[in-house]
Design brief:
Six copies of one chain form a homohexamer.
Chain A lengths: L1 E2 L3 E12 L3 E9 L2 E8 H6 L7 E6 L5 E4 L1
Antiparallel strand pairs in A: 2-3, 2-5, 3-4
InterPro entries (chains A, B, C, D, E, F): Mo/tungstate-bd_C_term_dom, Mop_domain, Transp-assoc_OB_typ1
Pfam families (chains A, B, C, D, E, F): TOBE
Organism (chains A, B, C, D, E, F): Methylobacterium oryzae
């Protein structure tokens, strides 16, 4: 499947924390740079995510903000 | 200002394309890895963004998806 | 690629309207039911979307609201 | 109330799963096609959602992505 | 229609700027406090928005961030 | 840090409800007007949010909808 989301960043699953319905998945996209995703527990199971396994962080361009110091 | 958004990734502005109301800002967060942000033209002006200047890509965790091959 | 987004709905591209930077893509997911997506012009080109062609509307669960009459 | 969100899809509540703060509501929009919404528990109560009752899935166009095989 | 979005803030339309496909609507929710919405041009027409007219800013709780100085 | 998000509304933290992974933070932005934010528990801790303390509700323009009666 090819998706319109402009940002697909390769990394490694660094942590998975399941909540009651919402899970937090941390993906290391470069040494020391973690991206945190809040997804459904159901998605974690469906994708068979495991710590240490490969994963992409996928983000729609309209959900990215820009900041400066 | 300190924000709740979990993902604040440092980079360099690689390109700015202004549309009629919406601009696309490309931030290089590591060599060869671009993050594209769709923001208002107004924000580009307000932040005085320039190509080559420093910028952060800021993303709320609930806007990040996870994918696997 | 398998994605965490819980909503992947099959349909047919009914219309594509490109703006200066943002395009509106209409996908018919059942007779008479259109889903409108606002994506980058770049994504329309990258996915080679054409009116009449197949496409999926993909939506993260945290972006879906519920309403009642 | 009339809202700017371009996508308002009628269906039937198929399931409600409340978490600690976040609930997942599944709406069947056509036979076999479920849309999953992640909303606050508070919203589930406020809308008096019940399994089997009517409901709309409401989605802003800028939150819809497009994918192709 | 009653919606799950937790934030429905009454105000007055202060400005409407239509782009090629995306419009910016500014709603004054209290004296001196503007909320800016980026919606489709189509929505502006469909809701018959006019400067000076009443309108609500509607925001899903999962799209609100928190910041401190 | 200066951010592209067009909506930064000052208020006071009225309530914090932590869930398993997701917290709901209520910010009073004017007397009687609450804005609810769903953020990570981690963000609540990181920002040291306390009831009665000052906080901003921050919202990207593309996440704001408009409604009329």
């Amino acid at each position: 499947m090819k998706i319109s989301a402009r940002n697909i960043i390769k990394g490694t699953v660094a942590a998975i924390e399941k909540g009651a319905t919402t899970a937090h998945v941390k993906i290391e996209i470069m040494p020391g740079q973690i991206v945190t995703a809040a997804v459904t527990n159901e998605a974690v199971d469906s994708l068979k995510l495991v710590v240490g396994g490969p994963a992409y962080a996928v983000i729609k361009a309209s959900d990215v903000m820009v900041a400066v110091d």
